[in-house]
Design a protein that fits this description.
Elements: H1 6-20, H2 23-27, H3 40-58, H4 69-75, H5 77-80, H6 86-99, H7 103-122, E1 129-132, E2 137-140, H8 141-162, H9 172-190, H10 192-200
Antiparallel strand pairs: 1-2
Helix pairs in contact: 1-3, 1-7, 1-8, 3-6, 3-7, 3-8, 8-9, 9-10
Length: 217
Amino acid sequence: MDRIDRIAFVAACRTAFDLASRPEVADAWTSESSCEGMTVGGLAQHLLAQPERVVQLLSAAPEGDPIPAIEHYRRAAWVQSDPEAEVNIEIRTSADDAATAGHDAVLAHAREVLDDLPDVLSAHRSPDVVRVPWQGWTLTSDDFLLTRSLELVVHSDDLASSVGLRTPPMPERVVGPVLALLTNLAVERHGQAALMRTLSRPQRAPRVVSAFHDGDA
């Protein structure tokens, strides 16, 4: 996969932070978000947790032999499970629980994380890998940042949709690799023809070509 530009990643995290800081998000904090079963506050907390995970894991000692990013999604239980499966309910519940601290507290913590992020990203790592403890496997640092970038891009759109705001544009050097990853995952799930038709022949396109859900391809 393409390398995620570190400076662009920090900019994407700040874009997500600015979105979560909006008064529309604060006002709707306990309302249900566009992600069914998750509050706006829970979604904002989950979004802002992505740079925190980067700071935590890139501050830990590197260990393990990495697997490719696409294999990460092949193995991840949340990808392979129904939205109402226990693993996905737990993701939503834990975010909602963390959001009970309130908008100001969640944003204050996220601001501290963002202050630490540039130094963590610029630190030398050898080997340049990250152990992902909640999954039980290792990724290269670049691939781990790619997975966090995907979360930032997708959930920023979810959060903006939840409160009626325009989805904020993300840096091209973040969005490009994320779109490439989503395309590869969607092709694996639905086949080349489904993606080709969706992008060029909508009259023959399947209804769904999601990277994470089955459709009628």
